[in-house]
Design brief:
Distance between the termini: 70 Å
Number of helices: 8
Number of strands: 0
Shape: globular
Order of helices and strands: HHHHHHHH
Length: about 150
C-alpha cells in the first residue's frame, strides 16, 4: 500500500512541478511535457498550463501552448480565463495580454468570478496600460462589426 502512495505522490509532485515550471518560464520543460502528453493538463482548480503561463507573464510559453491547441477562452473552476490571469497577476502583463487579444482573439467580454471581465480585473489591479489596450480592442471590434454589417446590407 505504501509503495502505491509513494508513486501517486511522485505523480502529484511531478504535476505540481510542471505548473511551477510554466509559471516561472522553463520553456524547455514545458515543451517536452506538452510534446509528450499534450496541453490538457490541469491543476486541482481546473487551471491549465496556459492559465499558469499567463499568470507568470510567460509570453513565449503561452504562444507555444496556444499553437499546440490550448483553448484561448477556457475557464478554470473559478470561471477565470487565461486573459484574466494576464490582466490581474503580477504587475500586469501588457505584451502577453495584447498577444492574447490581437493574435489569438481572446474574448474580452467573458465574465468570470464575480462577473469580473478582463478589463475589470485590469482596472481593479491598477493596470491602466492593459485597460487602455482592452478598451481600444473593444472599440476596434465594434467598428469591425459595423463594417461587416454595412457589407452585408
Amino acid at each position: 500500500m505504501g509503495h502505491h502512495q509513494n508513486i501517486n505522490q511522485m505523480k502529484i509532485n511531478k504535476m505540481k512541478n510542471i505548473f511551477q515550471a510554466t509559471y516561472q518560464g522553463d520553456f524547455d520543460r514545458v515543451k517536452a511535457t506538452v510534446l509528450k502528453g499534450g496541453v490538457a493538463i490541469y491543476d486541482a482548480v481546473g487551471a491549465s498550463l496556459l492559465h499558469y503561463a499567463c499568470s507568470g507573464g510567460q509570453k513565449e510559453i503561452a504562444k507555444f501552448l496556444l499553437d499546440q491547441g490550448a483553448a484561448i477562452n477556457e475557464k478554470d473552476d473559478l470561471q477565470n480565463t487565461p486573459l484574466m490571469y494576464a490582466c490581474k497577476h503580477g504587475g500586469g502583463h501588457l505584451e502577453l495580454a495584447t498577444m492574447l487579444v490581437k493574435e489569438y482573439h481572446a474574448d474580452i467580454s467573458i465574465p468570470g468570478d464575480g462577473h469580473n471581465t478582463a478589463a475589470l480585473w485590469a482596472k481593479i489591479m491598477g493596470h491602466d496600460d492593459i485597460l487602455e489596450m482592452l478598451h481600444n480592442a473593444e472599440i476596434d471590434a465594434q467598428q469591425d462589426a459595423v463594417e461587416t454589417l454595412g457589407d452585408i446590407q
